[in-house]
Design goal:
CATH architecture of the largest domain in chain A: 3-Layer(aba) Sandwich
Structural class of chain B: mainly alpha
Structural class of chain A: alpha/beta
CATH superfamily of the largest domain in chain A: P-loop containing nucleotide triphosphate hydrolases
Strand content of chain A: 25-35%
Order of helices and strands of chain A: EEEHEHEHHHEHEHEEHEHEEHEH
Number of helices of chain B: 12
Number of domains of chain A: 2
Order of helices and strands of chain B: HHHHHHHHHHHH
Radius of gyration of chain B: 21 Å
Shape of chain A: elongated
Number of helices of chain A: 11
Distance between the termini of chain B: 47 Å
Helix content of chain A: 25-40%
Oligomer: heterodimer
Largest sheet of chain A: 6 strands, mixed
CATH topology of the largest domain in chain A: Rossmann fold
Chain lengths: 310, 267
């Protein structure tokens, strides 16, 4: 881990009545960009709300920069939070809202206005939209304003719950670049997203949650290396991909396959790599197909995610 | 690709109380004065004075008594209901709109956040209460009610105290339960209509009873209703001090409980 952990959790649990949001999780998050991955109901939002002091742990402890977040204004001054939902005060214009929030964050009136303008430029909200009330905004514009309010007071830790929702591909790229810039300037960022490919390219560390438990955490490369028995993917370019696919699938060694007949390729998802590779050549020769290329594919974050949450 | 604005280094800041109040006040009045809200705002301020004027227009009977009845109705019924609607919603409104998170993640303690929000909403109610009282007084002048101008300072002071007392009680009800309007109705029936009418010291629990004591310092009200001004100082103290206790309790509740959106919406 690089540097002191930004967030530490020990035996952290959170219940909503009889429903368990988080179940005895312990972890440490290093400075930098960390992705929070998990299906709906995994406990991502609960964890983020505990980190930002909106919820209290039912048991266990969580500290951010060494302090408990609940009712801790000194710590909240160092946190920025962008919630998942799109609710904004629809009767206000963005600068009015940011100015008010800036004052609540300890800025002067002029400073809050100046910072609000700067942050709206940072998140690339078109200037012509600044004069409109936020109730008229599209989903993507709301996401940008929400990010602006989170950045307003120069937080040391940004907690972003699905910030890419509603953004077009260009908007996602822009948002990813903003986050990279802030991370490079020393702000730690915890980001959850269902767009796993983006987290993969954005975050060096990931935390995978499912059913309120941590399934895997740490550096992406370390997680991949740790999970040696995971299914590999193998792409084969040959003259009869459908015949090869049928032959291998019948052997019971595959989780599945994807046929690309026009490209003449088939991609195999392997159930048990040692058993598969033991029989691979025999099966290949027995199929009678002419093979042009065999390529091993790297595991993506999506594959890791699907595997550990299966 | 890179952003056009230099990325700042992290820093921390906590607002002073005055700065926090000015920030929330800015958000409060901007929202209240939005075009969409204006019809509601005008209806709230103008309804009672306009209805009073229309009802009294052309009457040859007793405009003074009618005017006094309207004033009492405003202070003891309309203003408490408005306080309940606005200040009962001081946190619940943000919670149900799912915008509380933007305030609750600012660098203020939860108690301070509650008090700042309460003060801003109370200031708004006070402004509307004073505006309505002034319009009512103008109607009184138009009706030719004697001593209307002389009553102005006392009536304005009574309105201000009534708004503070009912406001703090409403805020506490809002923090206790999301069905604070039901709580308010129960309180009105039990305390104001019931206990407040009992001619023993127990009626000190009633806010309206203290308002009646204050209004009794004005001769027209004393003459019309036979109320006694005895214990005016006590009533002023109660109306000034009880809100401190009630708002303190509400702030303590906000510090203790989470007031989380998902729980609020799934109850």
């Amino acid at each position: 881990m690089n540097g002191e952990p930004v967030i530490q959790a020990s035996g952290l649990s959170r219940w909503y009545g009889i429903v368990m949001g988080l179940n005895n999780v312990s972890f440490e998050l290093a400075p930098g960009l960390t992705g929070l991955v998990g299906p709906n109901g995994a406990g991502k939002s609960t964890l983020m709300q505990i980190i930002t002091g909106q919820l209290q742990p039912s048991s266990g402890a969580l500290t951010v920069f060494g302090e408990a977040p609940w009712n801790n204004p000194r710590l909240l001054a160092r946190l920025g939070y962008c919630p998942e939902h799109e609710a904004l005060p629809g009767d206000l214009r963005p600068l009015e809202w940011l100015r008010g929030l800036g004052l609540l964050s300890g800025l002067t009136s002029a400073g809050a206005l100046r910072r609000g303008e700067a942050m709206l430029e940072t998140v690339k909200l078109p200037r012509e939209a600044w004069g409109r009330r936020m109730g008229q905004y599209s989903k993507g514009m709301r996401q940008r304003v929400k990010l602006a309010q989170a950045l307003l007071h120069k937080p040391g830790l940004l907690v972003l719950d699905e910030p890419m929702n509603g953004l077009d591909p260009m908007g996602r790229q822009e948002m990813a670049q903003i986050l990279r810039d802030w991370a490079a300037a020393g702000t730690s960022i915890v980001i959850s997203s269902h767009i796993l490919a983006e987290l993969e390219s954005l975050c060096q560390d990931i935390l995978i949650l499912n059913w309120g438990r941590i399934i895997a955490s740490g550096n992406q490369m370390e997680i991949r290396a740790d999970l040696k028995d995971w299914p590999e993917e193998l792409q084969v370019h040959c003259d009869a991909p459908d015949r090869l696919a049928r032959r291998l699938f019948d052997s019971g060694l595959l989780l599945g396959f994807d046929l690309q007949p026009q490209a003449g390729t088939v991609t195999f998802r392997i159930k048990n790599p040692p058993a598969f590779y033991q029989q691979w050549l025999e099966l290949l020769l027995g199929s009678g197909v002419r093979v042009y290329e065999v390529r091993g594919l790297n595991r993506s974050l999506r594959q890791i995610y699907e595997r550990v949450t299966a | 690709m890179s952003t056009s604005v230099p990325v700042p280094v992290a820093e921390s800041a906590q607002p002073t109380f005055v700065r926090a109040v000015s920030g929330l006040w800015l958000l409060t009045w901007r929202r209240r004065l939005a075009w969409r809200q204006l019809p509601i705002l005008l209806a709230t301020v103008l309804a009672i004075p306009v209805l009073a004027g229309l009802a009294a227009f052309g009457r040859t009977g007793q405009p003074a008594m009618f005017f006094q009845w309207v004033v009492v109705f405003f202070l003891q019924v309309a203003l408490p209901l408005y306080c309940l609607a606005v200040l009962g919603d001081v946190i619940r409104g943000e919670l149900q709109a799912n915008t509380l998170v933007f305030l609750a993640t600012r660098p203020l303690s939860r108690a301070r956040l509650f008090l700042v929000k309460f003060l801003c909403e109370l200031a708004w109610v006070e402004l509307l209460g004073v505006a309505t009282t002034m319009l009512l007084l103008a109607v009184g002048v138009a009706l030719g009610v004697s001593q209307t101008l002389a009553m102005t300072p006392w009536l304005l002071g009574t309105t201000a105290l009534a708004a503070v007392a009912y406001g703090a009680l409403s805020a506490l009800m809002g923090m206790v339960h999301r069905r604070f309007l039901v709580l308010g109705a129960i309180y009105g029936l039990v305390v104001e209509v019931g206990i407040g009418q009992i001619p023993t010291n127990i009626n000190n629990l009633s806010i309206n009873r203290h308002l009646r004591t204050l209004l009794a310092n004005l001769a027209p009200f004393q003459d019309t209703y036979g109320w006694s001004p005895e214990g005016t100082l006590t009533s002023v103290l109660v109306l000034a001090m009880a809100p401190v206790v009630l708002a303190g309790l509400a702030a303590a509740l906000f510090t203790w409980r989470e007031y989380h959106y998902s729980e609020e919406m799934h109850k």
